[in-house]
Amino acid sequence: MIPFTKPIIKEEEIEAVKRVLESGMLAEGKVSREFEKLFSEFVGTKFATVTSNGTTALSTALEAMGIQPGDEVITSPFTFIASANSIAMVGGIPIFIDIKPDTYNIDPDLIEAAITEKTKAIMPVHIFGMPADMKRIMKIAEKHDLQVIEDACQAHGGSINGKQIGNLGHCATFSFYATKNILTGEGGMITTNDEELYDRMLMIKNHGRGKHGGYSHYQIGYNNRMMDIVAAIGVEQMKRFEFVINERRKNALEYDKFFSEFDEIKPQVEDDGFQSAYHLYAPSIYSDKITRDEIVSALRDEGVGSRAVYALPCHKQDTYLNIQQWRWAKFVDYPDYSKVSLPHAEEIGARHFDIPVHPSLTGAEKDSIKDSFRKILA
After folding, report:
1. 11-240 adopts what CATH topology?
2. Where does the chain hold its CATH 3.90.1150.10 domain(s)?
3. Is-contact 178 157, C-beta < 8 A?
4. CA distances from 336 to 90, 285, 296, 341, 375 (A)
5. Residue 105 and residue 99 in contact, taking contact as beta carbons nearer than 8 Å
6. Could you tell me the sign of the dihedral formed by the alpha carbons of 245, 251, 252, 254, in that order?
7. Closest Cα partner for 87 from 118, 113, 132, 110?
8. Who contacts 165 (Cβ-Cβ below 8 Å, separation ≥6)?
9. 329 φ, ψ to 5°?
């Protein structure tokens, strides 16, 4: 089986973790500071802070932005459920709007109609590494005095007109889960250019302590910190990151060219000036002869790793169909998500699938993947 993901862990990571273990300083410390510095320099922001995972990065950022119970945050339904859950965790209300069927990202044309007096923020998700239309989103946010948090948990290395994802909103969050372009197993990062916002994030993620540490506390906070053992892996990952992104992009563009031969396969669209990080390569199937589930099954039979990651958009998940069971429902008036209809998100959910795009793919493996499609779609 050609795996749909293949983490690159080499001797450098092992030695870096060993050095931390031998130092006796395992908690968040100087190695985490090094990781933050490398990452903020890459993204181009003034500040970055590590967290325990991508979900705590999202919830920490939302709380630092002042999202209160009952506040509405406009976001995409076509994403991993942590995006929406992080809003609900702080008592906010996820307001799902439909996506563009070509990019799979939140449709800016629909944002303003969803804004109410309760709306406080917009959370675009750069899905599969494909940048959302941040220029239009930021223009809408400025007009309505809204904050924008980029969910960039899949988008390390994506860019718009040469500017890195993570440096386009008021803040951004990243995940370093084991399948991501930069991986640490678990881990997260928040980036921003706003020093006051940054200082609040530092308190929230560290028990309400001030940025200089110690045992003075200023607000209720959490333990959302990263261990230096984890950060050590991230530091080494940063050193080969350019290679990882370039290989993913090379593989994706090779697939794009190949799929141009098939009318029934439509890759996710990369708009002019936009560069996807290609966390996943996820085309959609438009055929009367074979369904998405059938093509996934056929690919697996051919030894090609494939799956449909977000077959069920967030608003169709039991979590939101049963939102009245959530603890904040005693105080927050949630929408009836069962009545929410988002046809593009639902259609792409039913049509998309992903295939291997990771940087360790060999030429022979890519040829095998192409041969499998020729056979299945013949």
Report:
1. Aspartate Aminotransferase; domain 2 (3.40.640)
2. 241-311+343-376
3. no
4. 19, 31, 33, 11, 45
5. yes
6. positive
7. 118
8. 43, 126, 131, 150, 152, 155, 156, 157, 158, 159, 172, 277
9. -65, -15
- pLDDT averaged over every residue in the chain: 97
**Beta bridge pairs of residue 4:** none
97-127: b or e for each residue (b if 16 or more CB lie within 10 Å)?
A: bbbbbbbbbbbbeebeeebeeebbbbbbbbb
Percent of the chain surpassing pLDDT 70: 100
Q: Where in the chain is the domain with CATH 3.40.640.10?
A: 11-240
**Contacts of 33 by beta carbon, 8 Å cutoff, 6+ apart:** none
Tell which CATH classification among 3.30.56.10, 3.40.190.10, 1.10.760.10, 3.90.1150.10 matches the domain 241-311+343-376.
Answer: 3.90.1150.10
The whole-number pLDDT of residue 229 equals: 97
**pLDDT of 224 strictly over 90:** yes
pLDDT of 120-150, one tens digit each?
Answer: 999 999 999 999 999 999 999 999 999 999 9
Percent share of the chain, pLDDT over 90: 99
Q: At 150, phi and psi to the nearest 5? A: -80, 120
d(CA 318, CA 204): 30
- How confident is the model over 10-30, as pLDDT tens digits? 999 999 999 999 999 999 999
158 vs 313: CA distance, rounded Å: 23
Residues in the chain, how many?
378
User: What is the dihedral sign for C-alpha 245, 248, 252, 254?
Assistant: positive
**Which neighbouring-strand residues pair with 285?**
265
